[in-house]
Structure formats: structure tokens, C-alpha cells
Amino acid sequence: MNPLTAGPQRGRLVALLLALATVACAASAGSAAASTEGRLDQTQQKISQAEQKKGVLTDQIAGLSGRIAGFESRVSALRAKEHAAEVRLAAKQAELDQAEAEVKAAWDELRVLAKRLQRSLEILRNRLVAIYQSGSSDISELVLSANDYGDLLQRSEYLRQIQNRDETVVGRVRSLRDQQQALVVRLKKAKETIEVARDQIAAEEQNIASARQAVESQQNKLISARRDRRAVVGRINGQVDHLEDVEADLQAKIQQEIAAASGLNTLPAGPLTSPSAAGLIWPVSGVLTSGFGPRSSPGGVGSTYHEGIDISVPEGTPIRAAASGTVILASAYGGYGNYTCVDHGSGLSTCYGHQSAFAVTSGQKVDQGQVIGYSGNTGASTGPHLHFEVRVNGVAQDPMGYL
Fold first, then answer.
1. Could you give the domains of the chain?
2. CA 339: distance to chain centroid?
3. Is a pLDDT exceeding 90 seen at residue 37?
4. Is residue 110 within 8 Å of residue 183, measured between CB atoms?
């Protein structure tokens, strides 16, 4: 090979090899980024699936809670019925006890009546025997056998008294017999009625107790099912928390790769501050270089209205979301350069301008303190800083009143 031409050819060969090496490194970096993004997609899909499953379980838990509440109402109603049955049973038992006491007293009275009846029957029997033994007691015999008129009167009165006594004895016997029969019938019916009522109420109480036991058994099964589902939801929440941590790590890794690819020096994020009374935190930790409101234009000619505040930080400083919300804009926007706006609900939104790189996309949900981009010098900017805005229903407000 000609030495004069060997040098240039070798130089071209070295340049070609360096170019190929650069392409290979870029391809390797792209492959790594693609791999990380793939893992992020898989993680987000797992989070979505877990959230869907949790939603289904939450609906099931709500349904079970409703059914349990219904069973609790039924148990309360059954307990009330059972209590009412017990009250009625107690009342019937008291009536039965009283009736049994009356029956005992009646039987005592009946024994007394039986003795009286027996004595009356003996008297009546003796009287009948006496009449039989004395033969005819006709009034004509008494008249004919009388010695005189006075004796006749005495015998007539005596006969009348004997007849009245006989009738009294017979009436007494008949009355005692009727009282005895009526008392026995009345007490028997009262006892049978009360015992039937007591048996019915006891059966009703047993049925109510069985129904309550069945309802409580079903209720306990539902409570157990709800407890199991809540345990599953708890495990899913733990899985989601773990996956969200993995997602945050992957997003941070992707942003580091983006920053490295764009040539930015990755800087540590500013310290997280406690939320203000309005619920916002500072997006970066730096020096306030320009406030909100009117300010002079460059060169002293005219004035402009500054719709935010400027915070001086080195280029590449991570920018945190001032509050959780949804990204509604993440793109280049005129003099704002790379511009991100986050909707926090209720008409409140925050915007971040002059970014060197985005860390989120439009439509993405973000948490308070999550890195959404990196400070820079894009758009109409004279140096690296963050332009931060607070808007209510689209109208710019002084951020210092919210931080």
C-alpha cells in the first residue's frame, strides 16, 4: 500500500468505526429505554387490572353490606315478635296459674259440697224410710185419730213442717248437685282453653326462634364473605401500592434516560414542603427573581403583565406538581417554551413554563410532589428558571397567595 494514501484511508476507517460505535450505543440506549417503557406499560396494566378487580370487589362488598343490613332489620323484627310472644305466653301462664288456683279452690269447695250433699241425702233417705215404716200419712188419718180440735191443729202444723223440711232437703240436694256439675264443667273448659293458648304461643315462639336462628346464620355467612372480600381488597391495595412504587421508579428511570439523552445534568429535586392553607407546595426550591403583576418591558419601553412568578434554579432541576390532579397541557406553547398545566379540580390549575424536558404527558394523573418536568431556558427566557402560575377558572392569580 502506498504510504501517502495509507494515512487518509486509515483515518476514514477510524471515523467509520467511531460512527458505527456511536450508532450502536444509541441503539443500545434506545433499546434500554424501550425495555424500561415496556416494563412501565406492563406495570400500569397490572395496576389497572388490580384496580378493576378491587372495583368489582368493592361493589360486591357494598351489595353484601346492603343485604346484611336487610337481615339485621329482619332479625330485629323477629326478636320483637319473639319478645311479644314471650309476653303473651307469660300472660297466659299467669292466667293458667290463676285458673289452677281457682280449680284447687273449687275442688276444695266441691269436697265440702259433696259432704253436705251426702248428709242431705242421708237425711232424705232416713225420712223416706221413716215415712215408709209409719205407713200412710194421709191427712184423713190424722183427722180421724185426733182427740179434739186442738189436737187436730197441732197434728196439721206438724205435718206441714215435716213436708216443708222434706222439700228443703230435696231442694238442697238438687242445688248442690247442679252447682257441682256446673263448677266441674266451667273449670274444665277454662283449663282446656288456657292450655291450648299456651301451647299455640309456645309453638309460635319456637317457630320465631327457628326463623331468627336461620336469619342470623345467613347473616353470619354474609359477614364472613364480606370480611374475606375486604381482606382481598386489602391485599390488592398492598399490591397496587407496590406496583405504584415500581411505576414511580420506572418513570424516574425513564426521565433520567430522557435527561441523559438530551444532555442535561440530572439535579436533585428541591425539598418537599408542607402544603399551604390553599393546599399547594412549592414546585422547586430556589430564589424568587420576579413577582406577579405589571413589570417594565426590556429597555424600559412600556410595561407587561407578569401572570406568574419566576424562580431561579439551575437547568435540569426537577419540577414537582404543586398539587395532585390531571395534566391538561404538556407541549411547547409560544413564549412559555415547554409548558405544562395541571388541573386540580374546582377550577384551580397550575402551570409551569420554560422547561427543558417533560416528565409527564397530557391526560396523565399526577400526585402532589411528583416530578412533572425539568427546569430550563426554553421560549422567551433570559436564563434558566421556572415560570410558575396559579389560575382560577383560567384567570391568573398571584401564586404567593396560594403557596
1. 63-233 (1.10.287.2610), 269-403 (2.70.70.10)
2. 45
3. no
4. yes
